[in-house]
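Handout, page 2. Input:
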Amino acid sequence: MASGLAFGDLLGNVLRIVPVEDRKPLWLYPNLLSLDAPLVALAWLHIFAQTWRLGYHPWEAYVSLGLAVWAIYVGDRLLDVSLFGSTGAKLEARHRFHYRHRKFFAIAASVALVIAVVLVVMKMPMAIYKHLLLGGVMIAGFFGLSMLSSQDSNEVPHSKNILAGITFAFGTAMTAHLYRGGYGIYDLLTSREFMSFAVLCVLNIAAIDLWEHADRAVDQESKASDELALTLPLILLGSAALVFAVQDITTRPFFYAILTGAALLYVLNRAHARFSIHTLRVLADVALLVPVLVFWASSKN
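Output:
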């Protein structure tokens, strides 16, 4: 990131010096604009739709999901800013970016949410209302935990991360599950596809907090503990995905994708000290997008 001083015009005989705001690299803007989560949601919605072989999956399913996820993430970041202030210890570049442009984000998120609701009411199957009841409870719980979370930057918000991952996975899988026909919420929640993706989402969200915590830690024991907190679940998830892939040829590409995501997060976990936290945030999103390519390749085979 470039930073420095800009030399302005002369004010009398005194040269006015104006600080220049740090310029952000282009690859960071999807995160700053809260576009990373909707991209991941849409990519995995496509994977769920293909895995469950939906004969009909309309465009409004993708648009409503993308807009809803974006509005929720923007709302969460604006809430963090309102709770902890624009310069709070817990806030990062993405929060400060939302604070500087808070009017735009507030209006845009409201419009996006209204459009998503209209699409749900006008276009989506009636079965969605049963699913939205559970989803609404999850979202309310997530924002409740956000408001109750401690301002202590040394504390890892495990409960919030778990609920966020499960909620994200539920919203994504549910938007495909609605069109399967003859399947209820219980079938969704107990499916191996949903449970595997939910665990992957939880670990992806928790990874950033654990890496930040490890970077702040002074003793090596604490650093090793944070790394192990991700290593063991990722190994278990990868092993389960491999077993599921061997057992069922029809869902094999899906679990190859889960295995790929777990493997990429494992690699990042081992090498996280080499990267800045901003880079890690982008790479963590990439770890959930690359599996789409693996899914396509294995589906063709």
